[in-house]
Design brief:
alpha/beta; eleven-stranded mixed β-sheet; 14 helices; 36% helix
Length: 485
Amino acid sequence: MDWGYQTAGQLAAALRAGEVTSAELTDDAIARIERHDTTINAICVPDFDRARAAARDADQARARGEDRPLLGIPVTVKESYNMAGLPTTWGLPHHANHLPAEDAVQVSRLKAAGAVVLGKTNVPVGLQDIQTFNAIYGTTTNPWDHDRTPGGSSGGSAAALASGFGALSIGSDLAGSLRTPAHFCGVYAHKPTLGLAATRGMVPPGEPALPTDLDLAVAGPMARTARDLALLLDVMAGPDPLTLGKAHHVTLPPARHERLRDFRVLVVDDHPFIPTGSAVRAGVNRVADALTDSGARVERHSPLLPDLAEAATLYTTLQFSGSVARFPVEAYEQLQTRAAALSADDQGLDAARLRAMVFSHRDWIETTNRRELHRHGWRQLFAEFDAVVCPITPTPAFPHDHDPDPLARRIDIDGVEYPYFDQLVWAGVATMPGLPATAIPAGRSPEGLPVGVQLIGPLFEDRTPLRLAALLEQKIGGFHTPGSP
């Protein structure tokens, strides 16, 4: 039996039925990694000895009659999560030898659920790229085309899943870092509602692992099926026990509907700041057609949709305003000089980034107040709709681009070049207001590359886009192994 591409649900059933042991599954996954990861480079920090020990423990626990949600299932963890005894570098060479003393809260939850952690997956430098490469671990390639990126910053996790290296992975998302790699590699990911899953220990090396209310970033699950996403989210969800005592589990409301025909969906594939490439537009349309064919109510326009141009500016502003906290004084003063020279008429995203980096606290409070108005707009929209379908980025996976100046990079959209970071505006649609968003496969490009879309849902109603994802998986299909027709 080839276990590499079995889902977590299938593996759990096989383990419960006694058809396979965790030790066998773990050895099989390790052998697959050793055979194929030389070209993919997804697993940057293997932890095979401890994985085999954890698998033996899982088998003994099952023999004693125990059963936990992930008992004995091989998984991977994004490099940015602290794991005691393994390096956490965030791809920063001067932190190559940083060894945390304790596990991140989400790693602890994985282990408590019985998962077998095979190792850590590669990331871009500082988690700040739409690709995955760094000077410590090198470049991760896309399993569908090794000349292209798997995305970032959870690119190693997506590439690992697409390659059959474990059934599940955990990543993080501030600028599409879960959703973009899922889209590029043809797998599933879920950006939870902001604050739903504790993030302590998903922290830059050298910083204390303390409970933090992150302004935009979330921890979230990645998998090869929508059902597996929901399984892993149940393990991850819940507040930090350091802030709320022993409280761990959180009760999310059930999905709004159980049948496709009952969903009310708004489909959006045009953004005021960047065009949508033809391959991605086709993926959005494929999902829209499947919904329509199933009897769902599908709309293409709504006056309730918050202004996407203002939302993109707010998102860019919030994202970059916190990026300069540790800049040297001289560098910060140079930014102030450049920002002061901007024309008041310049309302582009580059100008928004620069202004945000020299924000006053008063400026930031004004921006967060505007965000609250957008959140209220989304509440009104979700009184009329259950989900929004839209792109994750404008294109499928693009070729590796390691220009050391990211601002000089360009993204090619149907033969026309655009600023590299402008492609993040679609990720920001859900990130800025903190909404849950599920990334699903939605077909292939003419070149055979995966194309994904995101399903955005209401705050703390994560089960609604997850259920919609599972229903669409039944309708249009889901993950395919790279190279398959």
